[in-house]
Amino acid sequence: MQIRPAGACKRDRSSLQVILSLFPSISAMRVPVLAYHAVNIAGNDYATNDHVAFAADLRLIDDLGLRIVPLRWVVDQLLGLADRNLDRCVALTCDDGSAFDFHDLEHPEHGAQRSLFNAMRDFIAERGAQAQPDLHLTSFVIASPEARERMDRVCLAGKGWMGEDWWREASESGLMAIENHSWDHNHPCMESPGVDGLPRGSFLDVNNHTRAEAEIAAATRYINQHIAPRRTQIFCYPFSHVSEYLRSEYLPRFGDEHGMQAAMGDGAMPVTLQADRWNLPRYICGWHWKSPEALRAILR
Ligand SMILES: [Zn+2]
Fold it and tell me: Which of 40, 80, 92, 194 is 20–30 Å from 70 (CA)?
């Protein structure tokens, strides 16, 4: 499929709106996008462990008769790049790109953890490939090897949980996409200041071109090298911090540089065709919902 550069779809969008007005079921696209953090392991029940929640939610979504589809499809629909039936669909994402996304790992306090990837394979083994034929998870990874090594050592258990060895296999699996969660998350554990005097700890300070290039375009280049010929085209704001400069200027205007087509925030509402492509809403597990009942209410 030909992908148009950012900013090129304005005219297409207005003609699309005319077409969509003739098909109310399409124009009513409402796709909740759910977000998980595989490093959220503080116990082994739904409320304390995103692996447990993720595995349970796959079954809940299926039981509710909803379809899981790739986030890419939601973005394609929004930008007028595709016209699929996304009625009663849900998209799944996970943030920070720890190895727990893909590999089963032993947590020092809470024992064996089934990866999000293998939770999907378990679901397929249990219910059959036809239960959710488009089952898919989009993983937003942190690009910089130095940043990941530092986070692993300073913030996690220093067990090599922030490697990139799984990116290619995941992106070629058909079940996962690897997308852009910035160069180093502007994480507080990084040496301060960052590029161009960037204070650490808030992504709201990524507020000029030099800082944006270092945090987003550099991440695109690194990730693309590791998943080629696939490319990252969706950004996810670290800390859900939606910098006004990024949302209204850098992302819309410098598509040739950063290659992004949409960006994910945390608006806690379904994505509709009226959504801001540079701040698409998501629901965050452990924040917007903490129980199957609460997720059921979101999805209803
Ligand atoms: Zn993050």
Answer: 40
